[in-house]
Amino acid sequence: MENKMQTWKWLAFFVAICFLSDTSYAQQYTYASYPESHSDTTSFAQRFIQRIGIEGRTGYIFPTNPFLKGDNYQGKEMKNTFSGHLKYSFQVRPNTAADKAYIGAYQGVGVGYFNFGNREELGNPFGVYLFQGGRIAQFSPRLSLNYEWNFGASFGWKPYNENYNTSNKLIGSKVNAYLNANLYLNWTLSPKFDLMIGATGSHFSNGNTQYPNSGLNTVDCKIGLVYNFNRQADELVKSWQRPIVPPFPRHVSYDLTLFGSWRKKAVDVSGGQVPAPGTYAVMGFSFAPMYNFGYKFRAGVALDGVYDHSANIKQEYNGEDGFTVPSALKQMALGISARGEFVMPYFTIGIGMGANILHNGDDLKSFYQILALKIDVSRNTYLHIGYNLKDFHEPNYLMLGLGYRFNNKRPRLLP
User: Fold this and answer.
1) I need a labelling partner for 310 at 20 to 30 A (CA). Which of 203, 242, 245, 253 fits?
2) Which among 231, 226, 292, 214 has a CA at the least distance from the CA of 53?
3) What would the pLDDT profile of 71-126 be if each residue is shown by its tens digit?
4) Fold classification of 251-406 (topology level)
5) Torsion of CA 348, 34, 18, 193, to 10 degrees
6) How many whole angstroms separate alpha carbon 328 and alpha carbon 359?
7) Quick one: CA dihedral 336, 342, 344, 348, positive or negative?
8) Alpha carbon distance 276, 265 (integer Å)
9) What values do phi and psi take at 214, rounded to 5?
10) CATH topology of domain 2-24+42-236
11) 257 neighbors 401 (Cβ within 8 angstroms)
């Protein structure tokens, strides 16, 4: 409770400073100009607005596991969550070609502290994550509806332990992935300060790399304040000049991705499932011809290949309970998926749905879904962080890899 009160006090303090320090736009009008294109020698401060923000979130935990419903040492239902965040980002300059093409994109890195109301059995983890956002709709020069996603890792969990933390059959690892998506109203209070009010949804899990892996899901409301270090007052006034965005050459590009990871496996037996011992390797590839419709969207199909060393493992009785691993041919599959990608500076978010057309064994006879983040390393190379699901609910495996894009004709709007 004291942590919550301190965070809200700091938010109130910064809002007060904002109003006290703000003068009218006319008094601060500088008529600074920023050209549509920048040479490589243009400073970072001229290309981007640098920002730092604080954010508080409070919300509801979905009771998806008996541990959350009261089957814990405290004997009470875990309903409420709270988190505090500190975030640094940089944003494209208003009234530029990049701002128009990429809807005011900003991106950066954040840290967060999470409280779920059960420090003894679940822990109060902290997170480190990348994030990106932009405009959905502009209602006035000062008010817009924005989106944002967060993707990273959370540390400091107290996982299940068969000796001293037996009730926590929710989280099985000390480190878990953190995913968040949110919508919010952004109100420009002054040339330096923005106020954000909105709603968010978060998911925590280990990607099936450790058992148990039920995952934790929350929905929150948020309030935050952003300080813009080098934003000019004239950039907030709606310009009569419309930036000229270079025409986009529609074309087909080709993404080749190689990935690998590890996973745990639950085996179906009479009366339910039992975990197979050990950890199993996963390797695969994807080759995706993608039609680029414009600056922000591309779609296509992909040929997906996978080798899953846990596929089609069976439990058998041969004097004692044991598990048999089939031949490699029964652990490989080839599938076809439909893909769509939302493209922004430095990051691409993709979804896919497909089915294995060549396989042996029931485990690989599946309808699968893919959620992936591609992080640009260079113009044509990228890091790939993805997750594969089966039938929209059953965890499969992580997809950690590298990729290369062939025939990339996307115009450069940012360095």
Assistant:
1) 203
2) 226
3) 999 899 999 999 999 999 999 998 889 999 999 999 999 999 999 999 999 999 99
4) Porin (2.40.160)
5) -10
6) 11
7) negative
8) 6
9) -70, -30
10) Porin (2.40.160)
11) yes
